[in-house]
Amino acid sequence: MNYCKHLFTRKKLFRYLSYLIGIIILISCSYNLGKQIREIPLHVQQSVSTNLISNGEISSLSLPIVSIYRNRSIDDKCASMKRPSRQSLSNIIRNDKMLNYLGYVLRSHSLFYCSVPKVATRTLLTFMTYLHIRDDLIPLITNYSSSNIFNFNTNSNFKKSSDMINADYFKRILYQSTNNISYKSINDPSILLNSFLSYIMVINKPNLSTIDLWSMYQNKALPLIRLRTLANPSIIFSSKFTRVMFVRHPLERLASAYTDKITPLTNPPFSLYDSLRRTICRKYAQFYLTDDQRMAYRKTKGLSKLKSEPCQKIIPTFEHFIEYLMSSSTFSDVHWQPYSKLCQVCLFKYNFIGKYETMEEDLMKLIEQLGLNRNDWNQKSYFKTGKTKENYKSLYSNLTNQTICKLKYIYKDDFKLFDYKVEDYLTSRKNIQCSLSYKQKLSKKRPNKEN
């Protein structure tokens, strides 16, 4: 009996040892495999990822949120592109008007954000403004001192707390948005900022007036958020800084810009985009106007400047919109200019790249990466346009192959750097082969548009 019990114990011990040896072998194999993968050159890893995507095994939009491939592909692909100017980084940041128009700095979070128009900028600007006021301005104004300003990497233009906020602007905008006259008598900048903070956190609720954040920053209401206010701008290239950019399929962004800026007839008369709509109408007048209406332009001097002129309520087609952009300098507008150039992607090497297609998940990932609590930003509405991908795709169905090829060339860097495909927006055409002649023609016609 004892012998049987002893034999059973030995067998049990042997089984446990076998399990332990198996686990050790498994861990060793996993380590070696991981080591081999890490030693694979980056361009090979990128090639494997791209092949999987092209074969339909994984989608570029379903890669892990802010996938490592999004960041690594920027480094890999920018290596083969034209190098930025040798001009010092600090001078580029201070002197580049576009970067100072689109770029925002959150000092408390060591973050630089390049806002791309038509890529959820209303959501993202609201988020950045919220953090800037809460974590940068209010603590700095509340505990204002010259040493705090110096430690905040701020240039000498900010000598007192009132330099950091345009108080009169906030009084006016809060009064206009709420009809609460008490805001006009508030002189404490921290109270004004807290009031504004409370307001923008509920700004997406019904019956509340919206605040144009683009206009707010153009009016220098919060100047400290701008790049050129950094005493040492090159700090944003340090490894401690998070350089954020959100992108969108180039063709969907272009279609969204057309829908938002050209098709509404509610724009103020002769405002920038209302004037553009009328100009396109007149250029292709034979498609929209009668012979008598076209003749009226020739006979009546200044007719095009009248509010009730023939093109007053004409919405040009998407085809004519695209053709006009390609034949004029209008392609430099921030709403449809390639974002790889707007944000100087190969200079800044953004290390957090979100996508419009995975907006909600990527924004939550950014919040986590900044060490914030999800409750710090509880907005549920991501300002959807109500349009679907199919709505935008339908706009491209009538474009000729020649026009598609021109667009493919204009947005070539956006496609290349961020793994988008022009074919995603072709309804009946599986693939388009574009000759080099399109590149040569556009290069000659638009020599300065991509610089």
Set down the secondary structure blueprint.
Elements: H1 2-39, H2 42-54, H3 68-78, H4 89-95, H5 97-102, E1 103-106, E2 111-114, H6 121-142, H7 146-151, H8 167-178, H9 189-200, H10 213-218, E3 242-247, H11 250-262, H12 272-283, H13 291-299, H14 318-326, H15 339-342, H16 345-348, E4 352-355, H17 359-369, H18 389-395, H19 401-410, H20 412-418, H21 436-445
Parallel strand pairs: 2-3, 3-4
Antiparallel strand pairs: 1-2
Helix pairs in contact: 2-3, 6-9, 8-9, 11-18
What is the multimeric organization of the chains shown?
single chain
How many domains? The number is 3
Query: Can you count the beta strands?
Result: 4
Q: What strand order characterises the main sheet?
A: 1-2-3-4
